[in-house]
Amino acid sequence: MEPTTFIWPFTIGLLFISCFLVIIVGIWISSLSRIDKSRIWHNIFTRKSLESLREIFMESLLHRKIFRKNAVLGYMHMSLAFGWFLLIVVGHIDACNHFQSLSVPAYKAIFFRFYISEAATTLSGKILAASMDLLLVFVLSGVMLAYFKRLNSRLFGMKKTTQLKIGDRIALSSLWLIFPLRFLAESVSAGIHHNGSIISQPTGNMLATLLPIHLFEMPLWWAYSGSLALFFMAMPVSRYMHIPVEVVLIFLRNYGIRVKKRISGFSRIQVYSCSRCGICLDSCQMNHAAIKDTQSVYVLKHIRNRNITDEKLFNCLLCGRCQPDCPVGLELNDLRITQRIESTKEYNSSYEYLKNGKVAVSPQTEVIYFAGCMTHLTPAILKSMKEIFALAKVKYWFMDEDKTACCGRPLMQVGQYEAAKKLIEHNRERILASGAKKLVVSCPICYKVFNEDYALPGIKVQHHSEYLLELMAENRLPIHKLPMRVVYHDPCELGRGSGIYHQPRLLLDEYTELVPMKNEKEASYCCGGSLANIKIQMNERNQIRDNVLDEYLGYQPDILATACPLCKKTFAKSNKLPVHDIAEVIYMAIQQKNISIAGEIKDEKVPKVEFWR
Amino acid sequence: MKHIVIIGGGIAGIETASALTDAGHWVTLIEKDAQIGGKLNNWSNLFPNFTPVEKITDELKEKCRRKDFSILTNTEVNSVLRNKDKFSINTSDNQQLEADAIVVATGYELFDARRKEEYGYKIYDHVITSADLEQLFKSGEKLTVAAGKIPKRIAFVHCVGSRDEKSGNHYCSKVCCITGVKQAIELKKHLPDAEIFCFYMDLRMYGKHFEELYREAQEKYDIQFIRGRLSEASEKIDKSLLIKAEDTLSGRPLKMNVDLLVLLIGMEAGKGTAAAATSCSIGCEESGFLQTADSFLQSNISMQDGIFLAGSCTAPMTVNDTVLHARSAAQEVNNYLQKTR
């Protein structure tokens, strides 16, 4: 049978989307840096491409990560993606088998049921026809679930689902129509020609008894073709761009390409790869402060549509709690930071007053110690570190004893990249001039920037929790166990930000009774005090903090331990639970001072001021 | 005869008890500590005229002795039950008291200066609070710091735990500005050679003779007032303190070495007042202090009929404000009891 006119909407739509994708992906890839392009060339014919294919199968089709979060949600995504994929593949095989040719045009495979007027006679034909019927039902079950999800997302383990814009609505409606229309069109054709399979034939027969189905055949095939065309046309302005772009993303990511400080083709690819599934919404703690429009999914949408406002972009703690949940594995924090750098006007940051001066450090110096400005505001941590250094007889240079330039991380977080670079260069020169081989940092915010943005060849950067563990392992610290129940709060920049989860726990386990918690490590909370959010109000921060503390109190700890001066300050303000940095806990344990339940250190220092009698 | 239970044996409680006894009622005063008088017992002299605290406390204690009302010390209130116009109060030593009216006079607590960790209270040797300084004044004559050294330079920090979003207290504690001026003068009298600096946000000299005392501090005692909040303090090897602040009038950052740092700590509603709010089912404001029916004509009236409020459980107050508030509370109770007779 020759092509009929109803194939044209579909064919034009398919041509349009194919050309659009080739052009836009071409533009993105051509805008990559030379290093990134060479990464592609060096890796394209290696195992990494095969691994990418495997990942595409596991994540883009089977949606393994979503399955782990919630089985029903995973099934919904899998039935739509994998089911549709199989429909296309099996449909082509079916058509090739029927026409006994390997070059069957797409429309003949897609509208195959329209083109055949007799029932399948061969066994393979029968099996293929039955499989196609079952696959369509499989996809339809996913469509039904998607329908229910819009009505009640809680059934799918999600408290919230994303709000849609017009482009998404058109694409979503056409997607929901495609499969029911296909089913009806195929069933009606089967009813007329008596050539359906296990499901379409009975449905067709039933429809034939109720309706004059020959009147409906052509309109249904037109509608099916039209809904496909509408879907393809709406795709560039909808979230469904994620389907093809995610494939590109997986290849590039496996070739070692990452988001940098500046917006690039790769960051655009990441932004377009967001499926707006909304899984990131639930883990966001801004919800605790009733802030519901600044989450990653919305910010990526606005970045993509180029209508992002500072109000949304900067109202985020950059805690990264959404990142492990993202089924596409997007670098959500770094994407936000690149956009912040893009959106921020550079302020006058000459820093001319910073003088490098001479760094006179004795050659025996083992360690450079950088406390950081937040640690200077929490002198109990500073004092504990000094005492521990003295106890372990560590020769150290206290780099910021009289204060030095900021580490640069807070500027980086709010998008002041150029200003941060100047501070980084200033500090870097001083660190290198000291000649020491180890840099110990008390603040995770500093730690992250020293690790990632300072080029410090031959110098090992350690957070004090890593360093204290090392001292303990080298038997340079005595061990006394404190009979205290301790819960440990992972600081965002140390845990999710730098992957340091175990060292603080090993230490606390040795010196206290560490109580494990449900929301820890990757799922740990933010204290709410983050410097990265410059829009949030103090009462909103307090709500976020109190929510976290209430959960911690449920474990009935004697104290809350953390490894960040900012987390400590944030929690200490609430007065609900005594909070101490890990360095303080270790120092108190070594001193064998007990902390009472009220958090008061027994025989603690009384101010030594007196009147002569 | 009507029976009134007063919770809290500080100045507000005693003054209310005394006035209600004068009006012919039977009064029971419940105090959680071993002795009555509240926080005033820990103070040395009162602003603005350096009146020795004993002058006030002795008179209050004398009232207690002379007048016929019962005092339960070392006692706390466990629960309060209302039965129409009567209250039944259960105490920590399991006594059951029946009352026709209750006066809550649970007072305040001092802000715990350790919560402003950046000032190093109980971390550094020479950081003390205004309350510590009063204790020192009570104890002797001359002040020394490390190794018997006499402090040469002393700094006061105003608004520690008051008007400070970061410590969660938005309100003004009302008494610390003038306390700082008073203590600075007292210290200068003790140590005439010392330089004394007060770091303030603004000085609220609202009371009688307050402004005069502030002027005297500058003109006669050469105390220097710097507008700017301290950002942090750090301890040097000789135990002196390096403090950082901004002089906001000249717009310059400032570093200074001092031998002693005094933190003028503010008032908080505290645990006693929170407990009273719960047991009596009367509301708290956001600040934690108890809610009054209005701020003008009914500042002694709680959200519960028959329960009245006196003193600094409703807001930070000076001694004289507290005494007046206590007397008006007694008046309100009296009016209420006349009506319900």
Name some characteristics of this structure:
heterodimer, A: 613 residues, mainly alpha, four-stranded parallel sheet, 27 helices, 5% strand, B: 341 residues, alpha/beta, FAD/NAD(P)-binding domain, 2 domains, five-stranded parallel sheet
Q: Please describe the biggest sheet of chain A, giving its number of strands, its sense, and whether it closes into a barrel.
A: 4 strands, parallel
CATH topology of the largest domain in chain B: FAD/NAD(P)-binding domain
Mean pLDDT of chain A: 90
Number of beta strands of chain A: 9
Q: Per the principal axes of the C-alpha atoms, what is the gross shape of chain B?
A: elongated
Kindly, what is the distance between the CA atoms of the first and last residues of chain B, rounded to a whole number of angstroms?
Answer: 10 Å
CATH class of the largest domain in chain B: Alpha Beta
The N- and C-terminal alpha carbons of chain A lie at a distance of 116 Å
Biggest β-sheet strands, sense, barrel of chain B: 5 strands, parallel
Ranges of chain A where pLDDT stays below 50 over 5 or more residues in a row are 596-603
Detail the topology: elements first, then pairings.
The complex is a heterodimer of chains A (613) and B (341).
Chain A: H1 7-30, H2 34-43, H3 47-61, H4 64-69, H5 71-99, H6 106-110, H7 112-115, H8 123-151, H9 166-193, H10 200-210, H11 217-234, H12 242-254, H13 265-272, H14 279-283, H15 296-305, H16 310-313, H17 332-343, E1 367-370, H18 373-376, H19 379-391, E2 396-398, H20 409-413, H21 417-434, E3 438-441, H22 444-453, E4 460-463, H23 464-473, E5 485-489, H24 502-511, E6 513-514, H25 538-553, E7 559-562, H26 565-572, E8 579-581, H27 582-590, E9 610-612
Parallel strand pairs in A: 1-2, 1-3, 3-4, 5-6, 5-7, 7-8
Helix pairs in contact in A: 1-11, 1-13, 3-12, 5-8, 8-9, 9-10, 9-11, 12-13, 15-17, 19-27, 23-24, 24-27
Chain B: E1 3-7, H1 11-22, E2 26-30, E3 45-46, E4 51-52, H2 53-66, E5 70-72, E6 77-83, E7 86-91, E8 96-99, E9 101-104, E10 109-110, E11 127-129, H3 130-139, E12 142-144, E13 153-160, H4 176-190, E14 195-200, H5 210-219, E15 224-227, E16 230-235, E17 241-247, E18 252-258, E19 260-265, E20 267-268, H6 270-279, E21 307-309, H7 319-340
Helix pairs in contact in B: 1-2, 1-7, 4-5
